[in-house]
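User: I've been trying to design a sequence by hand for this structure and keep getting stuck. Would you show me what you'd pick, starting by listing the structure so we're on the same page?

Assistant: Good idea, let's start from the same input. This is the structure you sent:
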């Protein structure tokens, strides 16, 4: 029709996302995940409509049954007539760059449910258990009106703590019989848990794993008003214990209601620092360093003719000379295409 807007035009896409249109949500997430040039403007427009969803992080080692647990928890939330967005992060192959994205297969029971939106994402080399665009995808689902957003991390172990900077609550899922008794004692994964779940609790060793976690919790001091992470048992394949998990999430949400603004402020601080770092490095690559200059600096460092601290100081000084914040690129990506600009003043050898 003459004069009609294309479905992919920014304002049309934004209004459709805000209206909960599934195709528009999928399109918006693709733009964000692919770091398209218009992604930053899209997130900027949607951001004022965020803040209504509650973000639940599900983490733990591989094989703990996180996907099945997310599937069962989704069913529990849908029984309440609440909508759910699922972000399932899968590892990227270091050889092919691809990902299996198998979580959609394990959650097919909800594939036809209009109240559930499932998105699998590849890490694309990002460490910490999440994909780089996880925050932005959560913004899209939040703006689309989802009541709950469940974020399942890839399951790589103790270093997978970025979820605590992303979710409102962190559920650490462990499984008996695979060395998790030792894993549970490691500080990194212990400190991020708001709820512990011992899944596959019908297995031998479940009692020992629960006891190990409880023993570690006894070493912490909890004040009268502090939240003490409960240790729950589930069998996700049958759904046993999942209603209790949903109740524990509700209890934590109520307990932390007064702290939610501060927790989200900490999350936004982390993301802001990430974005500033990303945009500054992008600016250095495209506006400060000339063609081949970084390689020459690296050669000097490798030859011990220049130390990295002096090189970084010189780059920073040159980048900040007369620079305003509006000079920095606005996209979500490191925009290295299009070549480098003319080189700036040469950096000395210190």
């Amino acid at each position: 029709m003459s004069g009609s807007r294309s479905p992919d035009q920014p304002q049309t896409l934004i209004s459709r996302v805000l209206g909960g249109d599934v195709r528009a949500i999928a399109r918006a997430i693709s733009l964000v995940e692919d770091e398209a040039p218009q992604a930053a403007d899209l997130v900027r427009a949607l951001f004022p409509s965020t803040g209504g969803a509650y973000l639940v992080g599900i983490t733990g080692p591989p094989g703990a049954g996180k996907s099945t647990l997310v599937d069962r928890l989704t069913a529990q939330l849908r029984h309440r007539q609440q909508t759910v967005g699922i972000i399932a992060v899968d590892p990227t192959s270091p050889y092919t760059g691809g990902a299996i994205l198998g979580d959609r297969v394990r959650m097919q029971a909800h594939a036809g449910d209009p109240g559930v939106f499932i998105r699998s994402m590849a890490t694309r080399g990002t460490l910490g258990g999440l994909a780089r665009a996880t925050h932005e995808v959560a913004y899209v689902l939040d703006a689309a009106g989802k009541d709950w957003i469940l974020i399942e991390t890839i399951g790589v172990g103790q270093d997978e703590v970025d979820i605590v900077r992303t979710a409102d609550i962190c559920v650490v899922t462990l499984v008996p019989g695979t060395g998790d008794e030792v894993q549970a004692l490691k500080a990194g994964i212990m400190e991020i848990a708001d709820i512990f779940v011992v899944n596959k609790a019908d297995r031998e060793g479940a009692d020992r794993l629960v006891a190990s976690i409880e023993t570690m919790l006894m070493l912490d001091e909890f004040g009268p008003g502090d939240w003490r992470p409960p240790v729950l048992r589930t069998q996700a394949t049958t759904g046993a214990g999942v209603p209790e998990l949903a109740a524990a999430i509700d209890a934590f949400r109520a307990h932390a209601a007064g702290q939610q603004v501060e927790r989200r402020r900490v999350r936004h601080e982390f993301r802001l620092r990430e974005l500033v770092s990303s945009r500054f490095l992008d600016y250095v690559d495209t506006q400060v360093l000339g063609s081949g200059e970084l390689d020459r600096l690296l050669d000097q460092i490798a030859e011990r003719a220049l130390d990295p601290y002096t090189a970084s100081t010189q780059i920073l000084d040159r980048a900040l000379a007369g620079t305003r914040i509006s000079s920095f690129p606005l996209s979500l990506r490191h925009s290295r295409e299009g070549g480098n600009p003319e080189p700036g003043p040469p950096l000395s050898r210190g």
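That's my pick for every position. To get oriented when you compare it with your attempt: Residues 1-5, 93-103, 124-129, 333-343 have pLDDT under 50 and may be disordered. The beta strands are 54-59, 84-90, 116-122, 148-152, 169-174, 195-198, 231-233.
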